[in-house]
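Support request, please re-run this one:
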Amino acid sequence: MKCEKKPRCNIESIVDIIGSKWNLLIVWHLGGRVVRFTELQHRMCGVNSKTITKHLRDLEQHGVITRKVYAEVPPRVEYALTERGEALLPIIGSMLEWGGAHLPAAQDERPVPNMAVAAVPE
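Re-run finished. Output below.
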């Protein structure tokens, strides 16, 4: 089947933002708090700093996170979710609910931050 050039659909745009394992985990770890780079790196086992930096830049470009640099020595950089990023938390909450119902017992004991699932208009 030949692929035709068509305008991007919404699902492709969404996958660009949260389809990456690392992007999704970064959003999860930033949920409801401001986090410094080193703290984020410690929370995300199995990923190197170059990968985290790449995905942080990607999320910042998509307007999901903010990056605040403090002019001090050594430099301090903090990351937080934007309003757009916070709006992803109920989606992650739904994913966690699905996982709780359909996967073996989860190992993550961290409470789910601000994950009230908004009612979907009919």
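The domain at 10-82 is CATH 1.10.10.10 (Arc Repressor Mutant, subunit A). The beta strands are 35-36, 65-70, 76-81.
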